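Following the same procedure, backbone shapes were mapped to integers, as reproduced here:
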Amino acid sequence: MSLPDGRERPDAAARLIGMRTSRILTAAWIGLLLLAGLYLFGAANDLLADARTGLPTDHTGTFTAVTGTTWSRTAPTAGYITLLERGYALHELVFALLFVVLLAVPFRRRNRWAWYACWTPTIANLGYALTFGAHDPAVGYRALVALIALPVLLLMHVPAFFARPGQPRG
């Protein structure tokens, strides 16, 4: 049976596959939003820690490993380090907000450029794993979660962004 525009009506199996694909893509998109929430939480948490103690708690292990001393013993240079940390956290916050907007609007509309743009946090995830994570295993494991989750969730969207003409895009 044909539709009014001349296309063939999909059979029940094709509709079922389309519904499953749509659910998987929705779940993967929600996963991306949760990852973006993790980025937002991390930046906000760092800003709070900078205000309270001058250094985020997840950076103290790296600080001690690199400097050979504890944070509390660095009074002469602590103000400058806190300033750097605050700037770093604000940059994290800006990029996390941009990632959320990217996911919420152009990614959801299936703009292909948005799929490519969503790969950019991988640079930060890798950098975090190789800098802070290299000196503190707990941070390293958290960095690996983001470093693995982002590509997996984006690759799940390949059918939606790169379907051939005439194929359902999910």
Observations:
- The longest helix spans residues 12-52.
- The mean pLDDT is 87.
- Helices lie at 12-52, 57-67, 75-107, 112-117, 121-130, 132-135, 137-155, 158-161.
- The two ends are 22 Å apart (CA to CA).
